Amino acid sequence: MIRILFSSFVALSLMLLAIPAVAEEPEDAKDLPVPSQGGMTAHIDPETGELIPPPDDYVPERIVDEGMRAMLSQSVEGLEFVTMPDGSVQVDLQGRFQHFNVARVGDDGQVTGLCSSQLQQLESFLVAKNRDGEEGAQ
Q1: For the chain, how many structural domains are there in total?
Q2: 23 in a domain, yes or no?
Q3: Closest CA to 98 of 128, 126, 67, 124
Q4: Which has more confidence, 85 or 65?
Q5: Alpha-helix runs per DSSP H in 63-114
Q6: 3-class DSSP assignment, residue 55
Q7: Is the pLDDT at 14 greater than 60, yes or no?
């Protein structure tokens, strides 16, 4: 009996030693760059090299990409309408007629959102400033 207990203890000890130690995150890990993605921009102060907020007159080159444009399309060109046996009509919208929810954070920390299917409305919302220079819904 003691021999079985001792063998079990030795086996358990060896298993515990075989478990790799949990690696701690290195101190400089928080300083590592975020993986880049298409459309990312950064504004850097040329004197200090620090990240800064975008200038007030900054307008991104491309707020809405071509994929989003296709999803916002409300063209019926090329869509196939199929009349079902019960008289209802089925249409494959091919990814069109979508709505987008967008949000922005104002200088005061207030989050403002918009849901729209209109390209110009979405772009205007994302770059608009009100008369006081603060971000806000227009």
Answers
A1: 1
A2: no
A3: 67
A4: 85
A5: 66-72
A6: coil
A7: no
